[in-house]
Amino acid sequence: MIKQKKTSRKSSRAQGSSSRRGASNRVAPRRGSANDAIALLKADHRQVEEWFEQFEGTNSASRKQSLAGQICKALEVHTQIEHEIFYPAFLEATGDEDIHHEAEVEHEAAKKLIAEIEASGPDDDYYDAKVKVLSEMIKHHVNEEEKRDGMFAKARESEMDLGTLGQQLAARKAQLMGEEPDQESSASQRSRSRTNRQERGVARAARYDRTH
After folding, report:
1. Does residue 18 sit within a domain?
2. Which string of DSSP letters, residue by residue, matches the chain?
3. pLDDT tens, residue by residue, 104-157
4. CA–CA separation, 147 vs 142, rounded Å?
5. Which domain holds residue 88?
6. Are the C-beta atoms of 48 and 134 separated by less than 8 Å?
7. Cα–Cα distance, 75 to 153 (Å, whole number)
8. Could you tell me if residue 60 is inside a domain?
9. Residue 23, in any domain of the structure
10. Does a structural domain hold residue 10?
């Protein structure tokens, strides 16, 4: 009986050691910084979601048009920087054509609806419906990118340089938004304002991550 107990204890220790070695050999997804590419893109998602909610909550035609304009502009810039910078880097690093191609197709579909919204206004009987459908399209797209096994998760598991990509995305975004810092004397103020907006967006993204 004593020998059997000793053997059992040795076996348990061996299994535990093997289990720990297996766990240490698995590569955990990298945790991102507040300024990396994924944090920036998630902050964009949270901002647009907030504007969609505001659109649904107002009856003011002028407010609706203003919010729709903000939404469309933000999405145009967001999809462009993803198309130009993030998506090519993702495809190169992961080789996952399915996720990449589906994301690009979703972008193209959203662009068509954005163009229709920008060409119309609150006096269009279908205006609210178009914004609502765009909201649903973007929710689906965001979920595909942010879900557990989605594009962002796979990007974190890859060798993508998310810090450098974040800088490239931020620079290109500022350019597309017409916020390049060397164009006029008030540039430093705009830069601080942009940084504050990005920090608020990152904070919203962090709160969203903690609750999902």
Report:
1. no
2. -HHHHHHHHHHHHHHHHHHHHHHHHSPPPPPPPTTSHHHHHHHHHHHHHHHHHHHHT---HHHHHHHHHHHHHHHHHHHHHIIIIIHHHHHHHH--HHHHHHHHHHHHHHHHHHHHHHT--TTSTTHHHHHHHHHHHHHHHHHHHHSTTSHHHHHHHTT--HHHHHHHHHHHHHHHTT--TTSSTTHHHHHHHHHHHHHHHHHHHHHHHHH-
3. 999 999 999 999 999 999 999 999 999 999 999 999 999 999 999 999 999 999
4. 8
5. 34-179+187-211
6. no
7. 22
8. yes
9. no
10. no
CA distance 5 to 3: 5
Contact 55, 67 (CB under 8 A): yes
Spell out a b/e string for 199-210, using b for 16 or more CB atoms within 10 Å of the CB, else e.
eebbebbeeeee
Distance CA 180, CA 172 (A): 9
Q: Residue written as tokens 């504050």?
A: 196
Count of domains for the chain: 1
Are the C-beta atoms of 49 and 181 separated by less than 8 Å? no
End-to-end CA distance of the chain: 51
- 90, two tokens: 């993702």
* Whole-structure pTM value: 0.71
Tokens of 7: 């053997």
CB 201 within 8 A of CB 47: yes
- What is the reported pLDDT for 51? 98
